[in-house]
Amino acid sequence: MQKHLVTALIGGIFVLLPNAAIGQSAFDKYRQQKDKEIQDYTTRRSNQFNDYAERKRREFNEYRSRKNQEFASYMERKWQSVSLNEPLKRPEEKELEPVVRDERDDDQQKAQEIKATVIQVKPEVPQPQPEPVKPILENQTPEPYSTFTFYGTPMKVRWGKLKNFKLAGSNEKSMAKGFRTLADTINNNVFHDCLKLREAYNLCDWAYYQMLEKLAEEICGKGTNEAVLLHGVLFQQSGYEVRFCLTPTDKKLHLLTRLIENPYDCRASSVNGKLYYLLDGCQASHVDICSFGMAGERHMTLSIDRIPRLAKNNSQPRQISAASYPLSITSVVNKNLIDFYLHYPASCKDGNMMTRWAYYANAPASPEMRESLYPKLREKLANLPKPQAVNWLLSLLQPDPEDVYGKRDTGIGLPYMYDSQMWNCIDRANFAEETLYYPGSDCEDHAILLSRLIRDLLDLDVVLVYYPGHLATAVCFNSEQVNGDYINVNGRKFVVADPTYSRGKLGKTMPECRGKEVKTILCER
User: Suppose 462 and one of 254, 375, 426, 451 were both cysteines; which one would form an S-S bond, judging by CB atoms 3.0 to 4.6 Å apart?
Assistant: First the structure.
């Protein structure tokens, strides 16, 4: 009789073990069976997932194709001739000249409450950026990347054979045919890659709009109808509201873009009660417009709620010293960001000219500004009472008392220069970084920069204060009692802080502005 158990001596103890040959064979058989079950289960689940993914891919592509075909069919119809609104003109106002505080006369004036009208610039509730009505999935066929440059920043996109794209003409049927070609699912990768670039480079709506324009020009050539159509299709397929139009005289294609702001110097058309703007500088009085839209489309905004991650191209360090305190800073900015800001379209909200500065004041500080400027300032201001810290910042930004008009850069404060001198225009505001970069700036630029520094470094609320011909700031110190001229804003005391009034300390108002009613704009924190 065959034995199934054997006796073994282990460590002085006798134990019974299964027969090695029989036991190992049974275990291997059991393990192989379980491995096969696991493999079958994994394969089945993988196939189920692949089937699900492929089904969803077909559903997404079929839905987008159906909607795009509907749009193209509408595009083939005769476009409606419409007149465009007159552009909103930039405000034209003579600025007050900068002055140096006369301590003898100024100190005799008693502090006063300044009557103010509060302009409530309601911030947009942060919303996710527009997205395609259905996700745009990558095509499974491998495709090489091509590169282009956006404000000094290399970017790459799989644009396939779009370099060969040509319109057959400039009428409605040609545009519709071109749209079908560009919006075809064969070009999914270019749409997918653009949306990924928006995320990877932290592009706000305006930056994304410009990036798509640059890409379209790289592919189809600057100034061509092909580039404009591709730009519009990329923007539209990303979820934004855009309308195509043709100028009847030269048959040039343009984009009318839906904005919630009112940009200056841009003509607009009302479509179903919504304003769409020509952002390319076209000043035609009439256009032929395709007024049809896409499902789920949403407007863009000009708010700079995020700073684009552009390649570093640092400026030469700039040394700025305070006139009245032992305080100096070295400022470095990203010149690629400065170039981006140069093309930013100024605008206002609801036609209210007073809101125009809020877009500049509420833009966050750039990484370069936070890295090069903020550490030194925090070190200097850390142990100061907040009113004294504000005085230090005022002295840092106010023009040199010996050279308030900026005829020479002394390194003291920020040289003052009118927009007509600096830009040959009647009105142009600076973002904070621009004021630190350009050789001259005016009252609104100083006020915007000061408001950014106070909010970021001292964690205090700030309002922009508009006097006729002048812009300053005022600061709320919460429970601290601070003497000087002040403004009551919704029951809170804001003390005047004017970064253009040379040697003017906290609570001091420029003589030309005293006794005048002002308007205030509360800056976002």
Answer: 451
